[in-house]
Amino acid sequence: MPHPLPALIVVDVQRAFDEWEAAGKRRNNPDAVARIADLLRAFRTHSAPIFHIRHEGTKPNSSFLPSRSGYAVKDEAREQPGETVIIKRVNSAFIGTDLEQRLRAGSIGTLVICGATTNHCVETTTRMAGNLGFDACLVRDATWTFDRIGPDGDERSAEEIHAMTLSNLDGEFARIVTTAGVVASFAAK
């Protein structure tokens, strides 16, 4: 029998992103971490499953090396006792981890995905979730990204990148939802 509640997948809400921002990288969705905290509160209140995904860097200069300050989880998204923490070393939370097996063992079919960054680990995890047959819901106001320079030197704002990622995923890989909508869905159960 399928699990009656969705699972929350919190991707890479780590201090490295604060360090990037402090170093001058510009991001969108300044309230994303507050929305992630709202989601965590709602899932905890309803005893719904939560999976914290943490990125562990493998390159010598990675901000996400366990020995560096950026590896630590932001306080607002810190796991509580009994909540699952899964360490990944690539963009997708499904590659090289037991996330899929844990979800299948729990008969979990719906995933609510949030975290950082929209166009990297969140997008890759969301695409794979959809391809693996999960009902993936990407929370648009609980994820963020940074400005980037494209291969031809073209500048793309974090807002443009975020919007394009949502457009690419919508309908084929995931449903695009809001924090308020997810929280309201618990009240309807």
TrEMBL record:
GO molecular function, one term: hydrolase activity
The keyword Disulfide bond is assigned to this record: no
EC number: 3.-.-.-
Domain Isochorismatase-like: 7-180
Entries under InterPro entries matching the protein: Isochorismatase-like_dom, Isochorismatase-like_hydrls, Isochorismatase-like_sf
Pfam families named in the record: Isochorismatase
SUPFAM superfamilies tied to this protein: Isochorismatase-like hydrolases
Keywords attached to this entry: Hydrolase
PANTHER family membership: ISOCHORISMATASE HYDROLASE, PEROXYUREIDOACRYLATE/UREIDOACRYLATE AMIDOHYDROLASE-RELATED
Name of this protein: Cysteine hydrolase family protein
Origin organism lineage: Bacteria, Pseudomonadati, Pseudomonadota, Alphaproteobacteria, Hyphomicrobiales
